Fold this sequence. Notes:
By secondary structure, the protein is an alpha+beta fold. About 60% of the residues lie in helices and about 15% in strands.
Amino acid sequence: xxxxxxxxxxxxxxxxxxxxxxxxxxxxxxxxxxxxxxxxxxxxxxxxxxxxxxxxxxxxxxxxxxxxxxxxxxxxxxxxxxxxxxxxxxxxxxxxxxxxxxxxxxxxxxxxxxxxxxxxxxxxxxxxxxxxxxxxxxxxxxxxxxxxxxxxxxxxxxxxxxxxxxxxxxxxxxxxxxxxxxxxxxxxxxxxxxxxxxxxxxxxxxxxxxxxxxxxxxxxxxxxxxxxxxxxxxxxxxxxxxxxxxxxxxxxxxxxxxxxxxxxxxxxxxxxxxxxxxxxxxxxxxxxxxxxxxxxxxxxxxxxxxxxxxxxxxxxxxxxxxxxxxxxxxxxxxxxxxxxxxxxxxxxxxxxxxxxxxxxxxxxxxxxxxxxxxxxxxxxxxxxxxxx
Length: 388
């Protein structure tokens, strides 16, 4: 049986305990010195006045009795004084214990305040706002060195992310030129007036199919790079219901070819963002549901709004899937095993683009395997009001 994990103590708690212990030890030392000084031995001497006559025996006995009585009273007073001093010391020690904890927590909070500010700012910075910096002001101490080190790391990360996105976009653009050249060469070779061998025509058809696949892949890379970059200047109100309707109408032929049953529940739900990217996101979700579906299957699409969020849910039937593999589908070029029915013409970027577009608009993508079989795709976006 595993032992329950004890909650970890924070740095502020450790500093509070340390400072409180130091303050308390100082108070204990001060009270101890005061008590020792106050309760130290005192000696009194009494000299007989000059010229006095020696006491007679009876007078001497009376004086000794009087001295003994005075000494007893003095001892009783000293004991009472010691008890009062001890009680006062205990009360002062209890008060100092509380004061030490309060002062220790206050001092620890002041010491850790710059670190809390650094932590909060670092948590707020993500891949979409790597341009932000901590910019901690203050003396050149260990805290400022830490903040400057983090700022340098963010600057290097920003440069790396920008270089990666720039490379994907540039490579995709540059590759379109040779693709267009190859497609034109095929059209010229097949379109010659002389009779073209049948094998050449068949080969040209297969090459056109592969070129179309590469073209879709490059287009997907461009959309993915743009979504991950997050630079959207064409923000506008977008109706998710209308986008779903357009996507279903565009794939009516594929739905009819597989005899799929489509059930929809499309509410009047709006979000705000790039119309191009959001339309591509909805197209990919619907396209994924049609492509990875068996003949005679079904698709259920729902668009709802609740608590300031817009929700697009697309469910499909099929075999029971592994949730661990399903969770990886949002990564580029990830597919399920061979048991899942698919046409094989996908680029492997469909759901990755969906996740990137949703994240760029402040939402997220949730993929889950249905217990009865099939896949559930849920996209959450911030809701917006309908345009006037």
